[in-house]
């Protein structure tokens, strides 16, 4: 798994699985090194997509800090994602999608190379997304389960002329 893997996609869509089982829990043990005392990440990973995989924010953050070449990150359908910090001056991340994570409370973004950001959620974008620094951001797609999108636009409006 660690030899030159550039793309990792895990899609456990709930429509295809027995709903009684729930989502798979992504554990740090999956990438455990010798003795499982440390996490060994795929060194050359560029694309990480986790659909209907329960993962906590700190593990996503560890992927971002240990896999220096990640350009594409998608997390969808995670019931365990509550807080996520996509932060780092050396991040290569160009595409970020966070969707259908019902307990998500905060996404903090400081990503100098981010070009595209997608957020679909049950919570108001203006309450969840904290876009601190994304000077190359040119494409934004927002969706939330509310009648008005005013808050969503306010959350990102300062990044566009």
Automatic annotation (TrEMBL):
Residues 44-124 form the At1g61320/AtMIF1 LRR domain. Transmembrane segments: none annotated. It holds the Pfam family LRR_At1g61320_AtMIF1. This is Putative leucine-rich repeat domain, L domain-containing protein. It comes from Rosa chinensis. The lineage of its organism: Eukaryota, Viridiplantae, Streptophyta, Embryophyta, Tracheophyta.
